Amino acid sequence: MDRACAPWGLLGEDRQATLIAGIEVAVDLAPLDEKHGPKTALATQIQARLRKEAYVLHARRCLAGGTALHPRQQRVVDDLRAFARPYLSRLWARLHGRDVWQETCADVDDVRALLDGVARSTSLDQRQRIKAMLENQLAPASGAAAI
Fold first, then answer.
1. How far apart are the C-alpha atoms of 74 and 99, rounded to whole Å?
2. Which residue of 31, 65, 76, 119 has the fewest CB atoms within a 10 Å radius of its CB?
3. pLDDT tens string 108-139
4. Coil, helix or strand for 147?
């Protein structure tokens, strides 16, 4: 009952504070916007790494080209524009797990590593979706050749 009544379903105030810090980082990330400069050093570091991802670079080139995007490319662009949503979802899940196991978020370096790790795993999920999309696109062609 206590957990349900606690803010965001997190009992520990340190986890609640980490979620607030994560919200600040998440809304400051804009991997597609070259001119956007995040307000914090951590968000700047995370954004710099995101911008170096091959799929992000490709999406930025497609947008800069001004040509119409394929629906699959548009889905990637939409995911990158809404990066905060999956980031915060994953962050809450990790914090909820820490809350259940009564693991603290008292160490600043640990919190930074957690917020950075959430961005990495969110990016990895997006890469995996793109890979699966490409494999599905190639599967009918290779399956037809085998028949």
1. 37
2. 65
3. 999 999 999 999 999 999 999 888 887 877 76
4. coil
Quick one: tokens of 93?
A: 């899940």
Structure confidence by residue, pLDDT tens digits, 8-58: 889 899 999 999 999 999 999 999 998 999 999 999 999 999 999 999 998
Confidence (pTM): 0.85
Is residue 41 within 8 A of residue 114, CB to CB? The reply is: no
d(CA 83, CA 61): 18
Q: Considering only CA atoms, which of 119, 121, 104, 98 is closest in space to residue 22?
A: 119
For helices 41-52 and 108-146, angle between their N-to-C axes, nearest 10 degrees: 20
